[in-house]
Design goal:
Radius of gyration: 21 Å
Helix content: 10-25%
Shape: globular
Number of strands: 14
Number of helices: 6
Amino acid sequence: LWQRAVIARSTARLDVSMQQTFGTFCQTRRWAADTERTLLVLKGQVPVRDGRVCYAAADASFEGREVVEFATRGKAVSADGMSEEAVRSVLGGDVSWTAPRALLQMLQLVPEAEDEVTSVCSAVSLLMWHNENRFSGIDGSETSIADGGRKRLRGGSSLHPRIDPVAIVLVTSADGSKCLLGRQKRYPKGMFTCVSGFVEHAESVEAAAAREVSEETGVAVSDVLLIGSQPWPIGRGGHCELMLGCTACAKPGGEAIDCTGDGQEGTGELEEARWFSRAEAQAMLEASTTPPSVTAGE
């Protein structure tokens, strides 16, 4: 049970996200579309109709626009700058523009769409990187897309997609009976997760995990172990993060929690952090994977 990287509290029903799918969502499987598909991405969002991602008409032309290959027989194109009428025409009608993270709700009701949603989320972050790197940050010269979107070229050099490493750590108490979870103020009511944070320059993953736990909760840890990783293409700012899952054990006498940051109430990154028992963690996992349509009270 402790090997599950992030856990959500049982008092809230949460959408499927990394909190429930660590180790499954965003694995390396490449989605194989049954036919040629072209995904339109508008301001970082994707078109959804009838609860599924929808694609451009097979005969739609996107001449002059950069194309990213994101799946077998799947391509993605930015719709930024296209007229509303043109977008509606190639999509065959009205759609709901949806943020990639919100697509994860789909996996609760349509689990067979996991490979598709994974690939779509990856396509959005990759397109965003391309849009942000059309010009060189060194001399301002124009860059060009290459290898189906896997890189950009500037003269004789290559630019590769940005990946931000993030350490995410499941901390157990010194006696192994509890785990440490926290929540930020912006989280949905009742949502708790493991402590996480970006790995800093010239810092090891293990050191980053221990530092983040100390900074955010005041808990001192040892025996930090890197146990696995997964890409997370719906990270902050739409960038692709590489989640580096760790476990750690609180030092005896170092389990006191302090989320105040500089010592003032409400100044820390976390609104609250708590120790949860194994039974509580199990209940949280079970509640977090309950589809919305059958959640008690709804």
